[in-house]
Amino acid sequence: MKYSASMFARRILLFCFLLVGLALNKPAAAQTRQVPLVKLAHLQKYLNSTSDTTYVINFWATWCKPCIEELPNFEAVQKQYAGQPVHVVLVSMDFAKDLEKKVIPFVTRRQLKSTAFLLDEPDQNAWIDTVDPSWSGAIPATLLVNNRRKQRIFLEKPLTLAQLQEHLTTKFSHNP
Amino acid sequence: MRKPYYFLLVLSVLTLFTAYRFADTGYQVGDTASDFKLKNVNGQMVSLKDQKEAKGFIVTFTCNTCPYAKLYEDRLIQLHQKYAPKGYPVIAINPNDATASPGDSFAEMQQRAKSKKFPFVYLHDESQEIAKRYGATRTPHLYILTRNGQDLKVSYIGAIDDNSGDPEKVQKRYAEAALDNLLSGKAVPQPTTKAIGCTIKWRNNS
After folding, report:
1. A121 or A170, higher pLDDT
2. How far, in Å, CA of A154 to CA of A16, rounded?
3. Given an 8 Å threshold on Cβ–Cβ distance, is B196 in contact with A128?
4. Does the predicted interface ipTM exceed a cut of 0.85?
5. Which range is the signal sequence, renumbered to this chain (chain B) (predicted)?
6. B27-199 maps to which CATH number?
7. Contact A89, A144 (CB under 8 A)
8. Do B169 and A122 touch (CB under 8 A)?
9. Structure confidence by residue, pLDDT tens digits, A64-113
10. Counting Cβ atoms within 10 Å, is residue B5 exposed (0-12), middle (13-18) or buried (19+)?
11. CA-closest candidate to residue A76, choices A86, A85, A63, A61
12. Beta-bridge partner residues of A118
């Protein structure tokens, strides 16, 4: 009886340690965000989507100062339109070799919640026009597109939150 | 008194109109490029028409601060070393506003040109007029001009090659292909290309 009681106590203790361990571990696990390395076909799923969703596709990079400055605006829009068919997609133009040491730490540190991936297509000339023929290649650049409603705007400049919201409310019929 | 006033009005409207046109579109391949006079890092003013021996120019909008522009510095040097003797020198132009991007001030440009031992001129487009006229949007952004009598014809607009991140993995040397064709009197097969680059830091960024 005594033996099994102590055994029981030990198990409880072990369980408690496990719980504490899990609790301590959880925030750290949630903090490291995965940013997949993708090819053009992955981006095209968003570009060519026919669902009634407005995709806000932003092209940025960790080395691009105006891009980093406007990122919170995209995060705010994603939060504002939570539960609505508005989907922010952050497409990193960083080099694939910088994924682990720059992009993932950046996305984690900034606690970015929007969909994010790194487009690993070094011959940019081969795909820039498929995003928008008017794009010269300068970043930041943003495409707002809803193929179902045949609506699209391409903007090759940094955007304020007010500008983003205005485009979404006046050009795309989504009202928050 | 009224006539000159109207004349001025019409003139300013026209000027505005052309300014907008340039700001909006800039040069296309086949257009005639205008000359400019910009200050080189050595303090001297440089214009294209002064260089009578040149067959053309590799006008490159670049800067000190953009990582992509920096990745291309060595390749720009190689391009100049290869093509300047053949008549196509590199003319590097920094169009970034020094207030918006302090690392692109004239003093910083002089520093960069010195430390990288630029064999080409590195000009300061302080008013940003030349970048606007050409329609440059990013750094690096390349315009190959070919002399055609008194005129300079835009023969190529775009990227240097197809891999900014890794010179070892370059497969398509767009600018070199254009230059080789021009030098042998042939048409440029791919006269415009695109690449990711840093937005030019315009004054009073709007």
Report:
1. A121
2. 54
3. yes
4. no
5. 1-23
6. 3.40.30.10
7. no
8. yes
9. 999 999 999 999 999 999 999 999 999 999 999 999 999 999 999 999 99
10. exposed
11. A86
12. A37, A92
Half-sphere exposure of A56 (CA within 13 A, CB side): 28
- Residues in B closer than 8 angstroms to A129, CB to CB, are 194
Between residues A14 and B94, the one the model is more confident about: B94
Share of chain A above pLDDT 90, in %: 76
Give the pLDDT band (50/70/90) at residue B23: very low
DSSP letters, A91-128, are: EE-S-GGGIIIIIHHHHHHTT--SEEEEE--S-GGGTH
Tokens read off for B46: 């440089």
Is A136 in contact with A156 (CB distance < 8 Å)? yes
**CB distance from A157 to chain B under 8 Å?**
yes
Let me know: does A154 contact A142? Beta carbons within 8 Å: yes
Taking chain A, what is the end-to-end CA distance rounded to the nearest angstrom? 64
Of B164, B194, B199, the CB nearest to A128: B194
Instruction: State the pLDDT confidence band at B84, using cuts at 50, 70 and 90.
Output: very high
User: pTM here?
Assistant: 0.82
Cα separation of the two ends of chain B: 38
* Predicted local confidence at residue A32, as pLDDT: 80
d(CA A167, CA A171): 5
**Are A137 and B174 in contact (CB < 8 Å)?**
no
Q: Which of B32, B116, B30 is nearest to B73 (CA)?
A: B116
d(CA B122, CA B40): 5
CA gap A65, B96 in Å, rounded: 14
